[in-house]
């Protein structure tokens, strides 16, 4: 099949590459000329594990191409994916200007039957709006609009896309349904379902899924905070709860709050949709409130430890991305935490395996960056772990003790065992577990 993907970001590039991998001919379109130039040169502008192998193979074999020219990109395409940004507008609702703008452009240039597929996360009713824009200029038999929300996670995006738990397709057109079945057939060979439904339900499914996952995280963060107060260990509570098959083990990890380009904006957008429809979605407001508070938990622990004043103190920071295995720092808790530490007078020496270039754009020379994790410890008073990259999980405690001013670790992701910390002589404060309060001999 000939496929056009409009918007070549985290979702568009993965979508385009994975469809090329299943034998389709894909043209990715983006307005960002520099990005398209890099892609044409064979350079992937984002860090996404496993994408490079597929990207190289499919560009080399001519199934994956890039352009800035929309008309050229959609020429001969049977389907057009919209993988465009839907950032929060000023009032918290999703900004649809990118999607609507491209729909208007497409209405001028589609000249044969095409399925226009919305992969961006968009509020209920958007497929109808896109349909209205297209039908302004095009006869109804030239297009169908389908809602096909994407559920991939950054960091494991290729795997999620190639083996989706499910595919959700919202369409009322039998013709589009046939095209979508053909398109996704290679991805669901193991029997994972393709759910066909109406467009509004598909759009709602995406927000419901993200908001529910965000709710689980905020719930666990509240449980963790309460565990600290009552002397319980949230790790054990998590295991005890999660083994109940009705609850499940995944997405119960407390931490420094959820970040990323989607949970924060999607929870907000769903709350806005509810409000616009006269419904007070109270849980969502709490989910957002809890998350905002949770983003300050680690910096508060650090600031309290130093009695409110961090002048003259240097904090080593491990992990900046909003989660491991990505370079994405959109809404990353690390940004909030570092800003607070700086405001309290601290100096920061940070390391992240992939996200440092992006963080430099935010903080410039207000913080120092290290080439590798142990370099952050030189001259630092204590260590804060903010993102649980695998490389941080089994450090040399000896080197940590030798390099840190004091053997003090603040762990925002509970990656170390408090018992080990005690044996190794660290002061150790984490999320939802008793503090290890002791000081090793200097
Ligand atoms: N990032 C993720 O993990 C996921 C994102 N989503 C949703 O997918 C959508 C896209 O998200 P991302 O890929 O993260 O965004 P992104 O910001 O990484 O990529 C969007 C791309 O669209 C391009 N663009 C903007 N206007 C354009 C135009 N008029 N023509 C062509 N290209 C244009 C931008 O230059 C950019 O490269 C959003 O609605 C998001 O909520 C859904 C599932 C997962
Ligand atoms: O719509 C989207 O963009 C995507 O949003 C999330 O994916 P993503 O944001 O890439 O990353 P997640 O793994 O979901 O993590 C989101 C945030 O929650 C935090 N998190 C996650 C899990 C957990 O147990 N605890 C926790 O604090 C992570 O640290 C991270 O900050 C969803 O998991 C995807 O299904 C969805 O497609």
From TrEMBL:
<dbReference type="Pfam" id="PF03721">
    <property type="entry name" value="UDPG_MGDP_dh_N"/>
</dbReference>
<dbReference type="InterPro" id="IPR036220">
    <property type="entry name" value="UDP-Glc/GDP-Man_DH_C_sf"/>
</dbReference>
<feature type="binding site">
    <location>
        <position position="121"/>
    </location>
    <ligand>
        <name>NAD(+)</name>
    </ligand>
</feature>
<feature type="binding site">
    <location>
        <begin position="251"/>
        <end position="255"/>
    </location>
    <ligand>
        <name>substrate</name>
    </ligand>
</feature>
<feature type="domain" description="UDP-glucose/GDP-mannose dehydrogenase C-terminal">
    <location>
        <begin position="316"/>
        <end position="418"/>
    </location>
</feature>
<feature type="binding site">
    <location>
        <position position="35"/>
    </location>
    <ligand>
        <name>NAD(+)</name>
    </ligand>
</feature>
<keyword id="KW-0520">NAD</keyword>
<dbReference type="GO" id="GO:0003979">
    <property type="term" value="F:UDP-glucose 6-dehydrogenase activity"/>
</dbReference>
<dbReference type="InterPro" id="IPR014027">
    <property type="entry name" value="UDP-Glc/GDP-Man_DH_C"/>
</dbReference>
<protein>
    <recommendedName>
        <fullName>UDP-glucose 6-dehydrogenase</fullName>
        <ecNumber>1.1.1.22</ecNumber>
    </recommendedName>
</protein>
<dbReference type="GO" id="GO:0000271">
    <property type="term" value="P:polysaccharide biosynthetic process"/>
</dbReference>
<comment type="similarity">
    <text>Belongs to the UDP-glucose/GDP-mannose dehydrogenase family.</text>
</comment>
<feature type="binding site">
    <location>
        <position position="206"/>
    </location>
    <ligand>
        <name>substrate</name>
    </ligand>
</feature>
<feature type="active site" description="Nucleophile">
    <location>
        <position position="262"/>
    </location>
</feature>
<feature type="binding site">
    <location>
        <position position="265"/>
    </location>
    <ligand>
        <name>NAD(+)</name>
    </ligand>
</feature>
<dbReference type="InterPro" id="IPR014026">
    <property type="entry name" value="UDP-Glc/GDP-Man_DH_dimer"/>
</dbReference>
<feature type="binding site">
    <location>
        <position position="330"/>
    </location>
    <ligand>
        <name>NAD(+)</name>
    </ligand>
</feature>
<dbReference type="GO" id="GO:0006065">
    <property type="term" value="P:UDP-glucuronate biosynthetic process"/>
</dbReference>
<feature type="binding site">
    <location>
        <begin position="151"/>
        <end position="154"/>
    </location>
    <ligand>
        <name>substrate</name>
    </ligand>
</feature>
<comment type="pathway">
    <text>Nucleotide-sugar biosynthesis; UDP-alpha-D-glucuronate biosynthesis; UDP-alpha-D-glucuronate from UDP-alpha-D-glucose: step 1/1.</text>
</comment>
<dbReference type="InterPro" id="IPR008927">
    <property type="entry name" value="6-PGluconate_DH-like_C_sf"/>
</dbReference>
<dbReference type="Pfam" id="PF00984">
    <property type="entry name" value="UDPG_MGDP_dh"/>
</dbReference>
<feature type="binding site">
    <location>
        <position position="154"/>
    </location>
    <ligand>
        <name>NAD(+)</name>
    </ligand>
</feature>
<feature type="binding site">
    <location>
        <position position="259"/>
    </location>
    <ligand>
        <name>substrate</name>
    </ligand>
</feature>
<feature type="binding site">
    <location>
        <position position="30"/>
    </location>
    <ligand>
        <name>NAD(+)</name>
    </ligand>
</feature>
<feature type="binding site">
    <location>
        <position position="86"/>
    </location>
    <ligand>
        <name>NAD(+)</name>
    </ligand>
</feature>
<dbReference type="InterPro" id="IPR017476">
    <property type="entry name" value="UDP-Glc/GDP-Man"/>
</dbReference>
<dbReference type="InterPro" id="IPR036291">
    <property type="entry name" value="NAD(P)-bd_dom_sf"/>
</dbReference>
<dbReference type="InterPro" id="IPR001732">
    <property type="entry name" value="UDP-Glc/GDP-Man_DH_N"/>
</dbReference>
<keyword id="KW-0560">Oxidoreductase</keyword>
<feature type="binding site">
    <location>
        <position position="323"/>
    </location>
    <ligand>
        <name>substrate</name>
    </ligand>
</feature>
<dbReference type="GO" id="GO:0051287">
    <property type="term" value="F:NAD binding"/>
</dbReference>
<dbReference type="Pfam" id="PF03720">
    <property type="entry name" value="UDPG_MGDP_dh_C"/>
</dbReference>
<dbReference type="InterPro" id="IPR028357">
    <property type="entry name" value="UDPglc_DH_bac"/>
</dbReference>
């Amino acid at each position: 099949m000939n496929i056009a993907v409009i918007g070549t970001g985290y979702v568009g590039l993965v979508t385009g590459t994975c469809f090329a991998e299943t034998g389709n001919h894909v043209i990715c379109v983006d307005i960002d000329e520099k990005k398209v130039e890099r892609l044409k040169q064979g350079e992937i502008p984002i860090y996404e594990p496993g994408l490079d192998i597929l990207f190289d193979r499919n560009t080399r074999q001519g199934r994956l191409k890039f352009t800035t020219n929309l008309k050229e990109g959609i020429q001969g395409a049977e389907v057009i994916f919209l993988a465009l940004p839907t950032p929060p507008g000023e009032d918290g609702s999703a900004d649809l200007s990118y999607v609507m703008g491209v729909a208007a452009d497409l209405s001028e240039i589609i000249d044969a039957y095409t399925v226009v597929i919305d992969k961006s996360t968009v509020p209920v009713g958007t497929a109808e709006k896109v349909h209205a824009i297209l039908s302004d200029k095009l006869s109804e038999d030239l297009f169908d609009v389908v809602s096909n929300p994407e559920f991939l996670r950054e960091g494991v995006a290729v795997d999620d896309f190639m083996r989706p738990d499910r595919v959700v397709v919202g369409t009322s057109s039998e013709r589009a349904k046939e095209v979508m079945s053909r398109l996704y057939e290679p991805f669901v060979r193991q029997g994972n379902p393709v759910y066909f439904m109406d467009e509004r339900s598909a759009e709602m499914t995406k927000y419901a899924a993200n908001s529910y996952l965000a709710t689980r995280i905020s719930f666990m963060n509240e449980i963790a905070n309460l565990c600290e107060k009552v002397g319980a260990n949230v790790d054990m509570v998590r295991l005890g709860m999660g083994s109940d098959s009705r609850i499940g083990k995944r997405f119960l990890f407390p931490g420094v709050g959820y970040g990323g380009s989607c949970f924060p904006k999607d929870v907000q957008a769903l709350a806005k949709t509810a409000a616009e429809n006269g419904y007070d979605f109270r849980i969502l407001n709490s989910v957002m409130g809890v998350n905002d508070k949770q983003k300050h938990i680690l910096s508060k622990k650090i600031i309290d430890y130093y009695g409110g004043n961090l002048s003259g103190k240097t904090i080593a920071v491990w992990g900046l991305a909003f989660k491991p295995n990505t370079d994405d720092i959109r809404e990353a808790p690390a940004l909030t935490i570092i800003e607070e530490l700086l405001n309290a007078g601290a100096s920061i020496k940070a390391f992240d395996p992939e996200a440092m270039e992006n963080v430099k754009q935010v903080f410039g020379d207000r913080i120092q960056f290290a080439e590798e994790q142990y370099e952050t410890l030189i001259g630092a008073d204590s260590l804060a772990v903010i993102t649980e990259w695998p490389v941080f999980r089994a450090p040399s405690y000896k080197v940590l003790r030798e390099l840190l001013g004091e053997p003090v670790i603040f762990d925002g992701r509970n990656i170390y065992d408090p018992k080990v910390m005690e044996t190794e002589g660290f002061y150790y404060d984490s999320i939802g577990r008793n503090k290890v309060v002791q000081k090793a001999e200097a």
